[in-house]
Specification:
Blueprint lengths: L1 H6 L15 E2 L5 E5 L4 H6 L6 H12 L8 E4 L13 H18 L3 E5 L1 H7 L7 H4 L4 E3 L2 E6 L3 H5 L4 H9 L1 H12 L2
Parallel strand pairs: 2-3, 2-4, 4-6
Antiparallel strand pairs: 1-3, 5-6
Length: about 180
């Protein structure tokens, strides 16, 4: 999939722009999905390597996980101009790449890092992320967990504990998922 993403000239906003296809364990039980790469991600071609990525790693470590245990991707595979939010038509166009990655990896849990990822993969869910963050959702046999984007804690320090509390639920949710899928 990474090769196909790199070859997609229609996905790029600028010539010679670095793709950020996603990375991690191809057999991961958990996929974390953000919205779009930022400047650091564009420079390195890796997802979540800036300040938000450092906080994501801290949260992973808080539940005994490393980046190498999970798969991390974004809805968009290239940084939008001016680091703006992704537009709905951009997400629609690039979403098949993410859906194919999910189909290949077959995670037990997909964690949304922010509202754009949630709306991309659960388009029928109209609830704001503020109302359902940290709550496990099952739809058609797939489990989802909407969380605030890690960057939110960088802009509003008071939300950091909410992020950590929501992340702390993941091990228990995984136990529940195992119990339900092993029947």
């Amino acid at each position: 999939m990474a090769k196909r993403i790199v070859e997609c000239e229609r996905c790029k906003y600028y010539p010679n722009q670095n793709p950020v296809p996603g990375e991690g364990n191809p057999e991961a039980e958990i996929i974390f999905v953000g919205e779009a790469p930022g400047a650091k991600e564009n420079e390195t071609g890796r997802p979540f390597v800036g300040a938000a990525g450092q906080f994501l790693e801290e949260m992973l470590n808080s539940i005994g996980l490393e980046r190498s245990d999970v798969f991390i991707a974004n809805c968009l595979k290239y940084q939008p101009p001016g680091n703006r939010d992704p537009l709905p038509d951009e997400i629609s166009f690039q979403l098949p790449f993410l859906k194919k990655q999910i189909a290949i990896i077959k995670p037990k849990l997909i964690v949304f890092l922010g509202r754009h990822a949630m709306k991309a993969l659960l388009p029928g869910n109209e609830a704001p992320i503020s109302a359902i963050h940290g709550q496990l959702i099952e739809e058609k046999g797939q489990f989802y967990l909407p969380l605030y984007h890690p960057a939110a804690a960088l802009y509003k320090e008071s939300t950091k504990q909410t992020h950590l509390d929501d992340f702390a639920k993941i091990p228990g949710y995984m136990d529940k998922i195992y119990a339900e899928t092993d029947r």
